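Re: How this chain folds, sequence and tokenised backbone to follow
How to read it: Take the token row as a discrete description of the fold.
Start of record: The labelled sequence and token lines come straight after this line.
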Amino acid sequence: MTTPLSIHIFFDFICPWCFLTDQILEGLAKRYALTFIPVSFPLWEHGLGHLSFEENEALRLRTHAADATAITAAQEWLGAEGMSLGPWGVATLDAHVGAQFAASRGRLKEYQHVLFNAHFFRNLRLDSRETLSLLAAEVGLPPDDFNSALDDAQYRQAILNAQIQARRLGITGVPAIVVDNRYLVVGARPPETYAEIIERVIQEKSMGKE
């Protein structure tokens, strides 16, 4: 039996390129034996309330200009229609804490899918605990337990540990993936590029290069 390749995926729920990377890798998992390890990387843990109006607007314009091509890429790479860039300035720390709880209940992938869809296709704000609770319920997570978990110190520490791990690897933005602890790929890539990297790792392993 082929041992699955591990792929660590550093991501944020409000990053359109993270959504594309997630979907592309899910598609490749139908062709290759892959194990995904999602790693939280909240871009704006506590939102953008510390910025002045002018600073906020300048950042919004820069970010949207850089991310606008993600909409076209979603159509070209995935055939996805109706995607937007979602609400602006969303603090995602609670969403990632919720992901830790979802993982503990074996529902992480479903939780990720629902939150990506909520942000990019339903225009819902993921910094609303009420919204997060409703979304968690959609994947079968008990609302009361989920709400309590959002203040769990252990889950919050896990997010901090993930950020430390990212810095040690030199990761300063998302998406970023680490393929089988061999190759770091920063930024989204088209499906064929990820497939080429996976094929390279498979070949290296077949030649005994560990």
The first helix runs from residue 16 to 28. The first strand starts at residue 5 and ends at 11. The chain has a mean pLDDT of 93. The chain is about 55% helix and 10% strand.
